[in-house]
Amino acid sequence: MNDDTPDSMQELADVLQDVRRHLLWQEETAGRSILVDAKVAAELQQQRAAASSVRTMIARTKAPEPAAAPTPPRPPAESPSRDTLHAAMKQPLGAPRPLAAATPPPAAPRAAPAPAPAMLLDVPRSAPRYNGALPGVVEGERPTLDQVRRELGDCRRCKLCSGRKNIVFGSGNPRADLVFVGEGPGENEDLQGVPFVGAAGDLLTKMIGAMGFTRNDVYISNVVKCRPPGNRNPEPDEIAACEPFLRSQLLAIQPKVIVALGKFAAQTLLRDTTPITRMRGQWREYEGIQLMPTFHPAYLLRNSAEKRNAWADLQQVMKLFGKHPGSSA
Ligand code: URA
């Protein structure tokens, strides 16, 4: 780089400016963004290499450092508007879709901050996050469900392993747009190794059908993967041992919507102790994914008056998918 004409120096200064903004953006988001794809990891690596070679070039030319423009604050992460989601959800289930991505900062002229790369899944600062390494995740890459299942292995991480017949990992479409999360396997699920196949499962299957889906369209899993003895509630240490696997499953699937069935699913995913009676029917967000808390089907079997409320919650989900009660579309 021997061309020290004023134009080339200005161009270099501009590049430096962009690189700075990008590095600042990366620094700012480092604690709250997660990589979602291997390709993405490679792209990020390339960007870092490019940034580093530009730095070297600049150091060699000894260009005067331009005064750094103040970096405007990043707008707070927002949930996509209902309308945006509604349009997005009209894609047919199972159709290839881009990875979930951050809403980039508004497009701006040169002086504005560089747009956030679309490859990062933005996590709101206030969102609870799992602090350890997620099972199945290698070097920040999005895992596959198979990888997560392999990592779970013949799990002995909590005392539920001693009474189980089968680990109930989950079932359905690994690329589902809609995921249902229950509490934990019961007797039938334990015997078959498949979630929601008993009485509560029959009701859930009907609910899914009434929403215009089949069990093969969606993915179904639980907070704990082994049956608590006598169908008791899962205990905190059991939830703590199993929860990372649920989070990895959701990272692998990256659905558009999660329906949390009952208090254990809603409270665990959201890290919120609000009773399900108050949480249900209110859209929430889990790691950038829309989450609808509702009643557990087993609870609905005991309290049929609440079915009406649960149906209202599921209708909100249907609306996001462009589905209407009575239509099979
Ligand atoms: N209840 C649950 O929460 N999960 C199942 O898989 C079955 C019943």
Task: Provide a descriptive summary of the structure in words.
The protein is an alpha/beta fold and 329 residues long. It contains 11 helices and 8 strands. It has a 6-stranded mixed beta sheet, sandwiched between helices. A hairpin with a 2-residue loop joins strand 7 and strand 8 (289-294). Helix 1 packs across helix 2 and helix 4 (145-152) packs antiparallel against helix 7 (236-253). The longest helix has 24 residues, at 6-29. The protein is globular and about 60 Å long. It binds uracil.
Mean pLDDT: 74
Order of helices and strands: HEHHEHEEHHEHEHHEEHH
Quaternary assembly: single chain
Relative helix content: 40-55%
Count of individual beta strands: 8
Structural class: alpha/beta
How far apart lie the N and C ends? 61 Å
How do the strands line up in the largest sheet? 3-5-4-6-8-7
Distinct ligand kinds = uracil
Discrete helix count = 11
Strand content: 5-15%
The gross shape turns out to be globular
* Sheet with the most strands, sense and barrel status: 6 strands, mixed
Uncertain stretches of 5 or more adjacent residues: 20-44, 50-131
The radius of gyration over CA amounts to: 23 Å
